[in-house]
Amino acid sequence: MQRKIKLKPYECTILLVISDKFIKDAKRFEKAYKMDVEEYTEKNEGVTMWDSSQYATIISHKHLTHNTIAHEMFHLTCKISGDRDITDEESRAWLCGYITGEFYKLLDKWNLKKDTSRSQPSIIMTQPENMISQKPI
Question: What CA–CA distance (Å, rounded) separates 74 from 108?
Fold first, then answer.
């Protein structure tokens, strides 16, 4: 599943993705959009890719926790604000809050909820669905 968001004040687009095939989808996005990315493996819970006008954050659905979401949204915020030389803490905090809220809208849309039955709470699907479309947005 994915959500595309245009951030007009920052003149960029972000793609927020939850994937059940993390490595395959990360490689597909990397190739399709020709974005920069730091090295990632199956052990990663998520990855953020970028160029100066387009960003993508992909999180593995099996590692979908509040911690992972916050972690990747922070990376996304740093990349967007760093590319624009934005160092003001309040501006960066607002951006991080906004994109995190958009990510949670994606979870709401797909009827995901927090699973408190595990020792490490995570977010689970309540209705199995194909997590991501065949083509990137």
Answer: 20
**Buried (b) or exposed (e) across 95-131, using 16+ Cβ within 10 A?**
bbeebbebbbebbeebebeeeeeeeeebbebeeeeeb
Q: Name the maximum alpha-carbon separation found in the chain.
A: 43
Q: Is 34 exposed, middle or buried (0-12, 13-18, 19+ CB in 10 A)?
A: exposed
Q: How far apart are CA 86 and CA 52, in angstroms?
A: 13
**Residue 28 neighbours by CB distance under 10 Å:** 17
Q: What is the CA radius of gyration of the chain?
A: 14
Q: 81: which residues sit within 8 A by CB, 6+ positions away? A: 87, 91, 92, 95
pLDDT at 81: 96
Residue whose structure tokens are 């926790």: 65
Residue 30: band (very low, low, confident or very high) from pLDDT cuts 50, 70, 90: confident
Report if pTM > 0.85.
no
